[in-house]
Amino acid sequence: MGKPNPASRRAALEAQRQAALASRRRGRMIGGLVGALCGLLLAAGLAWWWNVRNQPEPVAVGSQVAVSHASNQGRGITVAKTPTGKPTLVVYEDYQCPWCKVAHDGMGPQIDALVAKGEIGVEVRTLDMLDAGLNNDASLRAATAAACADVDGTHTKYRDTVFANQPQKEGTGYTDQQLRQDFAASAGVKDLTAFQTCYDQRQTHDAVQKVLDAARDADRDTSTPQYWAADEKGELKNQLDLKTLMGQRNPTEEELLAAIKAAA
């Protein structure tokens, strides 16, 4: 048997070396992929845990009560009944919305004056659209509390109180202490025990949800604030241009009434 060819032996050794290198590279690649996958799974797990940890505890919904001034098949709450032949001002608002507070503060006195003179009716449709963006449920809880105040007969004062105490920093929200105790006291809620039971057991849940569903089902933008002119049946006609109406200063009673009539 002849001696091995040195060239063939070197080729065989080189082939073995290349195979070993390739094997190590595959090992490192697989290890990297496994590490990356584990990292993704860990991140996903942590994200899931954080979301679950920060979800509000489910609240038991008690027996429902009728909202005293529900309007238009439950699409809102009547703040002031519309006189015969006069337009209705329909307000879409969110209690966490800073511009809703600006509009409420800037036009509230004029609206009250027009109501007192029998010039308009007013309907409020309260939304909770900011809850998702702000990662809380303060808008929904405030809407629930305001509906409970309507059952008590103090909706308008309660609504004013919530806006007056809106946090300066958007997203701070409202605490249960504020909504069920502090604001109720400031608004002069007549039956505090019944109001707090209504709030704690979400007894206006169905009424509030009906308003939200009606707004979401409408084929239009549901951002807030929105001020609309409507007929006596509450059917929306045209939206007021708040940017123009409040661009330089708050409108006078006459200017506001003219804008409502023009949109009706």
UniProtKB/TrEMBL annotation:
> Which InterPro entries is this protein grouped with?
Thioredoxin-like_fold (IPR012336), Thioredoxin-like_sf (IPR036249), Thioredoxin_domain (IPR013766)
Q: Per the UniProt record, which residue ranges are transmembrane?
A: 30-50
Going by the entry's taxonomy, the superkingdom of the source organism is recorded as Bacteria
Thioredoxin domain boundaries: 59-264
Record keywords, A-Z: Disulfide bond, Membrane, Oxidoreductase, Redox-active center, Signal, Transmembrane, Transmembrane helix
Q: Please list the GO terms describing molecular function.
A: oxidoreductase activity
PROSITE patterns membership: THIOREDOXIN_2
Which family is this protein grouped under?
A: Belongs to the thioredoxin family. DsbA subfamily.
Q: What is this protein called?
A: Putative membrane protein
Q: Which organism is it from?
A: Luteococcus japonicus LSP_Lj1
Its organism's taxonomic lineage begins at: Bacteria, Bacillati, Actinomycetota, Actinomycetes, Propionibacteriales
